[in-house]
Design brief:
heterotrimer, A mainly alpha (427), B alpha/beta (262), C mainly alpha (292), A: 427 residues, mainly alpha, ABC transporter involved in vitamin B12 uptake, BtuC, Arc Repressor Mutant, subunit A, 2 domains, B: 262 residues, alpha/beta, Rossmann fold, six-stranded mixed β-sheet, three-stranded antiparallel β-sheet, 10 helices, 23% strand, globular, ABC_transporter-like_ATP-bd (chain B), ATP binding (chain B), Manganese/zinc/iron transport system ATP-binding protein (chain B), AAA+_ATPase (chain B), ATP-binding (chain B)
Chain lengths: 427, 262, 292
C-alpha cells in the first residue's frame, strides 16, 4: 500500500516522467490502432512490430551506439520495409495476405533474433539493454530516451488530430474518398507511416512481441462502447493510457517483472470485459436482451390468452383460474405464475377471488397482440402467398415485435381489414 | 401460383432461414417433381443460394424442415451432389483437373480408403462427358471460367448422384460452355435425375427449365415453367420490395429475437 | 555429433511444421497458426509446473489442449461477441502469451524456462539432455525422440486423412454437402498444429515456430501446382534450411533457430524471384488460360 501511495503521489520526479512517458507511448499506439483496426488490417501491425527488431540491431551494429534517434531510424526503416514486402508479395504472387503477414513477421523476427544473439555473443559491453526491446521497459525509460520517444508520440497524436477527417474518410469509404478528390494514395502512405511510428514508440512500453496488443486491443475494446469514431479514439486512448500507468506502476513495484506482459494483460482484461459487458454490443447484454424478449413473449402471451378467453365469451370482465389458463395453453406452471404476478404489478391484470382478470389496460394490450397476430397472418397469406394453415407459427413471434409505425403501415397495406385468414375478426 | 406435386423428390415445409437472426427466406413451402430440370429464379439477394443450401442442410433452418426422397437429408447424403458457385473456391489451389473430379468419389469411399481404379475410370468418364478429357492433368489455375465450371460439373457427375444442386452454373461462362452444360443437364433429366439450378437469366429460363421456382425472400411461385413465367408473377418477383417484411427482419436482428417462440 | 543431433532436431521440427503449414496457408489460416504458437505458452508453463519436466506426454496434451482452446476462443469472440475476425486473433494470442510470460517470471525459481527460450528456443542444448536407459545405454537426446514420435503421428494423420483434408481445404461447402464433416477436420488439424507447436517449443521457441509453419510451405506453393509435390517440397525446403541455418549460426555465432528462420526467408525469396513457373524475374511466357 505504501508503494501505491508513493507511486500515485507522483512526488518522485522520476515517477512523473516514467508515467507521462508510458501514457504517451500507449496512447499514441492506441489511437493509430483504431484506424488500422477499422481498415481490417489489424494484424499488419503485428508484422511491423516484429520487423522492427532487425532494424534496431542493424542500427546498433552500424553505429555502435544506443542513441535513441539512431535506433529509432533503424527500426523505422525495417518496419517500413516489412510493410512494403507484404504488399509486394501479395500483389506479385499468388501468396495470400495472411501468409505474407505471417511470413514477413516470422522471418524478420528470425533475422532480428539472429543479429541480436550475434551482438550479445560478440562481447560488446555497450549492447546490454538491447534485449529490452523484446518485452518493453517502461520503468527504465529515462532521460534522453524518454524525451525522444515522447516527442514522437506527441507528434503522432497531433498528426492524427490534424488529419482526422481525411483518415476517417479513408477507413470509412476509400472509393468515395477517391471520387471526392482526396489524395487516397498519400493518405494510405500517411497512415502506414503513422503505424510504423506508433509501433516504434510503442515497443518502448511493451516490447516487440506484444506490440500488436497495443495497436489492436484498446481499439477493439473501444469499438464495443461506441459507434462514433471520435469517441472510439478517445476511449481507446484512455484505455491505452490506463494500461500505460499500470505498466509503469508494475515496473516500479516489481522491477523483476517484465512490464510489457503486464500492460498487455491489463489491456486484454479491459477488452474481454468490454466484449462481455459493454451495453448494447456486449455478449452479456445481448443475452440479457434475449431474456427480456422471453419475458416479454411470456407476458404478452398471457394477456393474449386472457383476451382470447374473453373474446370467446364476449365478456372481458370474467376471472379465470390458473387451471383454466393452463388448459388453454401448454406453458410451464411456474412460468405462468411468475408471469401473472409480474403483470399484476404492472397493472395489466387483477387478482380476484375466482382467479385472474384483465384490467382495462390489460385488455387493450391483449387486444393489440391479437390484432398484430391476425394482421401478420393476413399479411403472410396476401403478400407471401403462404397457406393459411402455415401462418400461425410465424405470427406467434412477429406479434411481439411489430412497432406502432409498422402496425400503421400494415393496416394501410392491407386496407384496414376486418377479418384474418381464418375468418376471425381483427380487433 | 404454387403447385404441389405427388411423390415429390424434394419437400420443403414451412422453411425459414435467417442470417444473424434476420430471416432471408420466409416460410417456404414447396414440392418438386422427380426427373425434372428445376430453375430457381429471382433478383439478387432474393435468397436463391440460401434456399438450395438450406435444402442440403448446409445452413441451419430457423423453422420447418426439408425432406429429400421422403427421408431426412442425413440419410440420403450419398444420393446428393452439389455444384457450388465457381467463385467459392480458390482456383490457385495446387490441384489438377483430375484431382478435383476424383473428389466426386470421396463421399462414397469413407474414411481412410483411397480411390480405386473404378473411381478413376468414373472420373475420366465424367471428364469426357463435359468435353474436358484432354485436360485431366492440367492445373486448375490455368483454366478459363467456362472450363472451371465444367470441372465442377464433372466432379458432380463422377459422384453419380440422383439429385443435383447447382449454384449459378451459367454465371460468367462462354456460349459454348453454356450450350454444353444445358445439353448435359437434359441428358441427366432423361436418365431420371433431378437437377435444381440457381439461375438469374430470365430470357433463357423458359427454354431451359421445365419447372420454375420464383423467389424473392418468400416463395412467389413454383410450377411448370410455362405457367409460372408470366408477366404478372415476374412483376411480383422483381417488382417493389416488401418493405414491411424487410423492416420486421431488421427488427428481429436488432432485438435479438428468436425465430420461433420456443 | 552435436551438430548431427541439432540438425536432426531442426529437420524433425521442419518436417512436421512444413507439412501442417501447407494446409494452413491454403486455408488462409497462417495467422491462426501464429496465434496458436503464441497461445500455447501458458499451457506449457502450467504443465511444466505440474509435471516438472518438458518432454512429457502430459505436457504435449495439456499445452496442446490450450492451442485448441485458442481456436475456440478466437471463434467465440468472433461469433458470439462479434469481434472483428483479425482483432479477435490479435487480442486472443497476445493476451494468452502475456499470461505465459508473467507465469514464467512469477515462478522463475520453479520453472526451468526463461524468456529467451520462449523466443527462440534452446536447440543448442538439445544434445545435452540425453535419454539414458537403466543399463546405461545412451539413446540420444530426449527431444529427438519426442519430436520423432510427433513427426510420425503427423505423417500418419496426413496419410490417413489425406483425401478429407484435401477436400475440406479446397472446397468445404462441397465436402459438407457430400457428408464429410468440415469441423472434425478443422479441429483435428488445429490439434495437430498445437501439438507440433508444443513439441517444437524447446528447440525453436514459441515464436519462431511460425517461420517453420509458413515459410517452407509458401516456398513450395510457388514452385509447384501439385499438392503432393507441395508437401514434399516444403519438407525438403525445411530440412535444407535446418542444415544451412545451423552452419550460418555457427559462422556468425548467433541463435540457431533465428538462423534457420532467416534461411527459410531466403529460400522463399529465391522461389519468389526465380521459380521456374511463377518467379517474378523469370520472363518465361506465362501460361495463359486456354480459351475453349
Amino acid at each position: 500500500m505504501n508503494e501505491f501511495i508513493e507511486f500515485f503521489s507522483f512526488a518522485d520526479a522520476n515517477i512523473r516522467f516514467v508515467t507521462v512517458g508510458s501514457v504517451l507511448l500507449a496512447t499514441s499506439s492506441a489511437v493509430v490502432g483504431c484506424f488500422t483496426l477499422l481498415r481490417k488490417r489489424a494484424l499488419v501491425g503485428d508484422a511491423v512490430a516484429h520487423a522492427v527488431l532487425p532494424g534496431v540491431c542493424l542500427a546498433f551494429m552500424l553505429s555502435g551506439t544506443k542513441n535513441p534517434f539512431i535506433l529509432l531510424l533503424g527500426a523505422f526503416v525495417t518496419g517500413w520495409l516489412s510493410l512494403i514486402t507484404i504488399d509486394f508479395i501479395t500483389s506479385r504472387s499468388r501468396i495470400k495476405e495472411d501468409t505474407a503477414i505471417a511470413l514477413v513477421l516470422s522471418v524478420f523476427f528470425g533475422i532480428g533474433i539472429l543479429l541480436l544473439t550475434a551482438i550479445q555473443h560478440s562481447g560488446n559491453a555497450a549492447q546490454s539493454g538491447l534485449d529490452k526491446f523484446l518485452f518493453g521497459k517502461a520503468a527504465s525509460l529515462v532521460g534522453e530516451d524518454l524525451i525522444a520517444f515522447s516527442m514522437v508520440a506527441v507528434l503522432l497524436l497531433v498528426t492524427t488530430i490534424l488529419f482526422y477527417k481525411e483518415l476517417a474518410m479513408l477507413c470509412f469509404d476509400k472509393a468515395y474518398a477517391k471520387t471526392i478528390g482526396y489524395p487516397v494514395r498519400g493518405l494510405e502512405l500517411l497512415l502506414t507511416t503513422l503505424t510504423v511510428f506508433a509501433v516504434v514508440v510503442g515497443i518502448q512500453a511493451v516490447g516487440v512481441v506484444l506490440m500488436a496488443a497495443m495497436l489492436i486491443t484498446p481499439a477493439a475494446a473501444a469499438r464495443f462502447w461506441t459507434d462514433k469514431l471520435s469517441l472510439m479514439l478517445v476511449l481507446a486512448a484512455l484505455i491505452g493510457a490506463f494500461s500505460g500507468v499500470s505498466g509503469a506502476y508494475v515496473s516500479y513495484t516489481a522491477p523483476a517483472m517484465p512490464t510489457g506482459p503486464w500492460i498487455v494483460l491489463i489491456v486484454s482484461m479491459i477488452a474481454i470485459l468490454s466484449f462481455a459487458f459493454a451495453p448494447g454490443k456486449g455478449w452479456v447484454s445481448r443475452l440479457l436482451r434475449q431474456r427480456r424478449n422471453k419475458t416479454l413473449i411470456l407476458e404478452e402471451n398471457l394477456l393474449k390468452l386472457l383476451y382470447h378467453l374473453g373474446e370467446e365469451k364476449q365478456d372481458f370482465q370474467t376471472s379465470y383460474s390458473l387451471q383454466q389458463i393452463l388448459e388453454k395453453r401448454a406453458i410451464p406452471k411456474k412460468q405462468v405464475s411468475a408471469g401473472l404476478s409480474k403483470l399484476r404489478k404492472q397493472g395489466y391484470i387483477e387478482k380476484t377471488p375466482a382467479g385472474w382478470q384483465l384490467t382495462l389496460q390489460g385488455q387493450r394490450r391483449g387486444e393489440r397482440v391479437v390484432r398484430l397476430h391476425r394482421l401478420w397472418e393476413l399479411y403472410l397469406t396476401q403478400y407471401l402467398q403462404l397457406a393459411s394453415d402455415h401462418v400461425h407459427e410465424d405470427a406467434e413471434t412477429i406479434e411481439h415485435i411489430i412497432t406502432p409505425e409498422l402496425e400503421q403501415r400494415l393496416m394501410e397495406e392491407l386496407g384496414y381489414p376486418v377479418l384474418d385468414p381464418h375468418s376471425a375478426r381483427i380487433p | 401460383m404454387i403447385i404441389q406435386v405427388e411423390n415429390p423428390v424434394v419437400e420443403v415445409h414451412d422453411l425459414t432461414v435467417s442470417y444473424d437472426r434476420k430471416p432471408v427466406l420466409w416460410g417456404i413451402d414447396l414440392t418438386l417433381p422427380a426427373g425434372s430440370l428445376v430453375g430457381v429464379i429471382g433478383p439478387n439477394g432474393a435468397g436463391k443460394s440460401t434456399l438450395i443450401k438450406a435444402m442440403m442442410d448446409l445452413l441451419p433452418a430457423g423453422s420447418g424442415y426439408v425432406r429429400i426422397f421422403d427421408k431426412p437429408i442425413a440419410e440420403v447424403r450419398n444420393r446428393i451432389s452439389y455444384v457450388p458457385q465457381r467463385e467459392s473456391v480458390d482456383w490457385d489451389f495446387p490441384a489438377s483437373v483430375f484431382d478435383v473430379v476424383l473428389m466426386g468419389s470421396y463421399g462414397k469411399l469413407g474414411l481412410f480408403k483411397r480411390p480405386r481404379q473404378a473411381d478413376k475410370d468414373a472420373a475420366m468418364e465424367a471428364l469426357q462427358k463435359v468435353g474436358m478429357q484432354g485436360f485431366a492433368n492440367r492445373q486448375i489455375s490455368q483454366l478459363s471460367g467456362g472450363q472451371q465450371q465444367r470441372v465442377f460439373l464433372a466432379r458432380a457427375l463422377a459422384q453419380n448422384a440422383d439429385i443435383y444442386f447447382m449454384d449459378e452454373p451459367f454465371a460468367g461462362v462462354d456460349i459454348a460452355t453454356e450450350t454444353a452444360i444445358i445439353e448435359l443437364l437434359r441428358t441427366m433429366r432423361e436418365q431420371g435425375k433431378t437437377v435444381i439450378v440457381v439461375h438469374h437469366d430470365l430470357q433463357s429460363a423458359t427454354e431451359y427449365f421445365d419447372w420454375v421456382v420464383l423467389l424473392n425472400m418468400r416463395l412467389v411461385a413454383s410450377g411448370p415453367a410455362e405457367q409460372v413465367l408470366t408477366q404478372h408473377l415476374l412483376e411480383q418477383t422483381y417488382g417493389g420490395k416488401l418493405t414491411v417484411l424487410t423492416k420486421v427482419g431488421e427488427l428481429l436482428r436488432k432485438q435479438e429475437f428468436p425465430a420461433r417462440e420456443s | 555429433m552435436n551438430a548431427f543431433w541439432i540438425i536432426l532436431t531442426g529437420s524433425l521440427v521442419a518436417t512436421c511444421c512444413s507439412l501442417l503449414g501447407c494446409y494452413l496457408i491454403l486455408r488462409r489460416m497462417a495467422m491462426v497458426g501464429d496465434a496458436i504458437s503464441h497461445a500455447v505458452l501458458p499451457g506449457i508453463v502450467i504443465a511444466f509446473l505440474l509435471t516438472g519436466s518438458r518432454d512429457s506426454v502430459p505436457m504435449l496434451i495439456g499445452a496442446g489442449l490450450l492451442g485448441v482452446l485458442t481456436t475456440f476462443l478466437i471463434e467465440f469472440f468472433h461469433r458470439y461477441a462479434r469481434v472483428q475476425a483479425d482483432a479477435s486473433i490479435g487480442v486472443t494470442f497476445t493476451w494468452l502469451f502475456a499470461i505465459g510470460i508473467i507465469l514464467i517470471s512469477v515462478y522463475a525459481g520453479q520453472v526451468d524456462l526463461d524468456q529467451d527460450c520462449v523466443l527462440y528456443g534452446e536447440i543448442a542444448y538439445v544434445p545435452l539432455d540425453l535419454w539414458i536407459t537403466e543399463e546405461g545405454l545412451s539413446l540420444g537426446p530426449r527431444t529427438v525422440w519426442t519430436l520423432a514420435v510427433v513427426t510420425l503421428l503427423i505423417i500418419l494423420y496426413i496419410v490417413l486423412g489425406y483425401k478429407e483434408l484435401f477436400l475440406t481445404t479446397f472446397d468445404p461447402a462441397y465436402a459438407a454437402a457430400i457428408g464429410i464433416s468440415t469441423s472434425v477436420w478443422y479441429y483435428s488439424l488445429m490439434t495437430a498444429v498445437s501439438i507440433t507447436t508444443v513439441a517444437s517449443f524447446e528447440s525453436v521457441g514459441a515464436i519462431l515456430v511460425v517461420a517453420f509453419l509458413v515459410a517452407p510451405a509458401a516456398t513450395a506453393y510457388l514452385l509447384t501446382d501439385n499438392f503432393k509435390t507441395m508437401l514434399l517440397l516444403s519438407v525438403l525446403a525445411g530440412i535444407l534450411a535446418s542444415v544451412a541455418g545451423y552452419y550460418l549460426a555457427v559462422w556468425i555465432d548467433g541463435s540457431i533457430a533465428g538462423a534457420i528462420a532467416t534461411v527459410t526467408g531466403i529460400e522463399f525469396m529465391l522461389a519468389f524471384l526465380f521459380s521456374p513457373s511463377r518467379g517474378i524475374l523469370i520472363r518465361k511466357k506465362q501460361l495463359q488460360p486456354v480459351q475453349h
